[in-house]
Design goal:
By secondary structure, the protein is α+β, with helices and mostly antiparallel strands. The protein has one domain: q64v53_bacfr protein fold (Single Sheet), CATH 2.20.140. Helices cover 21% and strands 44% of the residues. It has 1 helix and 5 strands. It has a 5-stranded antiparallel sheet with strand order 4-3-2-1-5, covered by helices on one side. The longest helix is centred in the last third of the chain and has 17 residues. The chain starts with 7 loop residues before the first strand and ends with a strand. InterPro entries: WGR_dom_sf, WGR_domain, YehF/YfeS-like_WGR. It comes from Candidatus Methylobacter favarea. This is Polymerase. Pfam families: WGR.
Amino acid sequence: MREVLTRIHLERHESDKNLHRFYQLHVTPGIFEDWALVREWGRVGSPGTVRKDWFETEEKALTARQRLVEAKQKKGYQSMG
């Protein structure tokens, strides 16, 4: 499986604040030789909000994905596999 198809799933739990959040990212090709970074976030167990950001190249989309992963990890999100 190519890296581009890999879905990154992060979660953040703070039981004392009743905070149970997820953040999911993946990169996928578009139909016009462009690439989408698809993000979904929300409360664990609920449907999330979805956003797509478009990039000219796969490399730019993967770079943006990595920046978001690092930013979320700084806020306490952990990879769930």
